[in-house]
Amino acid sequence: MGESIKGLKRSKYCGEFRDSDVGNKATVMGWVQRRRNLGGLIFVDLRDRTGIVQIVFGEA
Questions:
Q1: CA terminus-to-terminus distance, the chain
Q2: How many angstroms separate the CA atoms of 59 and 33, rounded?
Q3: Residue 11 DSSP one-character state
């Protein structure tokens, strides 16, 4: 990868994630294309130059 921000290094580019990556921890970098708050769950569509991934955040 080679790209990093303040010591953080991305796990993969957005376009490289596959179904087998669901549920695993990853470091991703990109920009938020869309954010949806469904009352308890927040969905973020994160995009980089290779594609898009959806990140889901639950209440802590």
A1: 31
A2: 21
A3: S
4-58 is classed in which CATH architecture? Beta Barrel (2.40)
Give the number of other Cβ atoms within 10 Å of residue 14's Cβ: 19
Question: For residue 19, what are its two tokens?
Answer: 């179904």
pLDDT digits (tens, 9 = 90+) for 14-49: 999 999 999 999 999 999 999 999 988 999 999 999
Tokens of 47: 């995009």
Domain coordinates in residue numbering, the chain: 4-58
Burial of 25 (0-12, 13-18, 19+ CB in 10 A): exposed
